[in-house]
Amino acid sequence: MMDITVPDIINWSNVSEKDREEALCRPPIPVGDFQQTVGNIISAVRTDGDQALRELGEKYDGVILEQLEVSAHEWAKAESLVDPLVLRAMDEAISRIRDFHIAGKPVPLSMETAPGLRCEARYLPITPVGLYVPGGSAPLISTVVMLAIPAQIAGCDEVVLCTPPDRQGRISPAILAAATRCGVKRVFKAGGAQAIAAMGLGTESIPACAKLFGPGNAWVTEAKQQISALPGGAARDMPAGPSEVLVIADGDADATAVCWDLLSQAEHGPDSQAIVISDSRQLLDEVGKLLPVMAAELPRSAILAKSLQYLRRIQTDSISDAVEISNRYAPEHLILNFEDADQAADKVTAAGSVFIGPWTPESLGDYCSGTNHVLPTYGYARAYSGLSVSDFLRRMTLQRASNAGLRNVGSCASTLARAEGLDAHSMAVEYRLKGNGDS
């Protein structure tokens, strides 16, 4: 059994402000050579297109591909290779996620802001869009659903999905089954920074996309950032870092359940962070005893041995203090496992997604509650929201004035334009007010 240790408890009221800042520091994001390497990958894909993808796939994924796009034959047999139980769970999750996201879709607006002056807001789908689904030890079915369902509801005509193949050059049949159910028709065998570059810039096979979506490691995140900064490069969904969870629990919370919630995010990667805050020293002590034992028995114990070095157990004088600390940290996932959690949720001001009460594990949001699991991390929840249909739409405003409408508001525009020293702006109004400009 692997030996896993966890850091000591931090008593919030007894430490300095500097120590508090250090306690809430995220795991460091790598800097240096890898950023240049990502830049080189982007340049290679820009120059050599599909050939660069094949060469980079061989280098990083260990596979030689003749065809980058999933073939009709692969699509046709995919569903038959997936456990029917998984397919039923997939359908159930998709139904809830679709219902929730349809309900949250922005609606057009049309109103008269003055007699004879009508203003509108219309929402138009962004297209093409590129979806990235990370590879790894398991097929991320849920990520396909979380990305593709909002795109489908938004009405995006062209949706491209990239995901790394296995060593045999195959995409998981479960990934393809999920993609089919969500209206995705084109899937490409490409991963990492090269996949982002391909969707962001375009190659012979992969169309250049207007916006890129999906989680990924530091390489993927860096590639999205570099692509979005290029003239004509694709926009990105949100800045993100390693996965994270913050659990606030009182002395009545089930310590084992708290540990599972912490481990469910810490197992994502060696740089994931889990934090538990409580006003109960006994609860924090019990978590400290249970967590290493539970982690050591899991298949991803090697990952957990690294990520749990970033675990924080913080003792506070009260639960309200814990909520204040959480708002300061702005976690990707926040679990409120204590009495009166519903009332406390009203005081949460910065979190990607909040899970209220002892019966709401974060796993529900990851898979099937209806909300989206693509969320801002690394403190970006202060300014960014979780993925929704709105991210796949662009808002366009329109206005229409009649002659009477212009006479009602024209002097307002003219006066402000003159105040700004923009005479042509003013004259565009005044010329018409003098009776000119009729067709």
What can you see in these coordinates?
The chain is of the alpha/beta class. It has three domains: 149 residues, 3-Layer(aba) Sandwich (Rossmann fold); 206 residues, 3-Layer(aba) Sandwich (Rossmann fold); 32 residues, no CATH class. The chain is built from 16 helices and 14 strands. It has a six-stranded parallel β-sheet with strand order 1-11-10-9-12-13, sandwiched between helices. Strands 6-5-4-7-8 form a five-stranded parallel β-sheet, with helices on both faces. A three-stranded antiparallel β-sheet has the order 2-3-14. α7 packs parallel to α8.
How would you name the CATH homologous superfamily of the largest domain?
Nitrogenase molybdenum iron protein domain
Please work out how many helical segments DSSP would assign.
Answer: 16
Q: Mind telling me which CATH architecture of the largest domain this is?
A: 3-Layer(aba) Sandwich
Structural category: alpha/beta
Considering DSSP H and I runs of 4 or more, what fraction of the residues is helical?
Answer: 40-55%
3D shape? globular
- The number of strands is 14
Distance separating the two termini = 84 Å
Give the DSSP E fraction (strand runs of 2 or more residues): 15-25%
Largest sheet: 6 strands, parallel
CATH class of the largest domain: Alpha Beta
Give me the side-by-side strand order of the main sheet.
1-11-10-9-12-13
Per the CATH scheme, the topology name of the largest domain is Rossmann fold
Task: State mean pLDDT (0 to 100 scale).
Answer: 95
Secondary-structure element order, N to C: EHHHHEEEHEHEHEHEEHEHHEHEHEHEHH
